[in-house]
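Render Nuclear transport factor 2 family protein in 3D.
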Amino acid sequence: MAGRSFYELEVQNIIEVFGNIAHAFSTYEAWEDAEKTKFVKRGINSIQFYNDGQSWRIVSMIWDDERPGLVMDGRYRGATPENSFKPKPLRGSA
């Protein structure tokens, strides 16, 4: 993906809050074009937040993409038809 444009869309999120801390699992799909005709990848952003009394601040963020041997559970995909895109297996994968 380095050096090329892409469009990333959030398709689902799960947010949990406890006091002044929060965690978001944000599922994304990346496309080469705004019309969503060329699928690139799907994955999850894991974002941690802290409320400082004024606003929510991002403390950390990390992400991972689906790949052969790592496919996200359906609960992270959402329930709308738009979120049901099933990419073709990568070459060499089962």
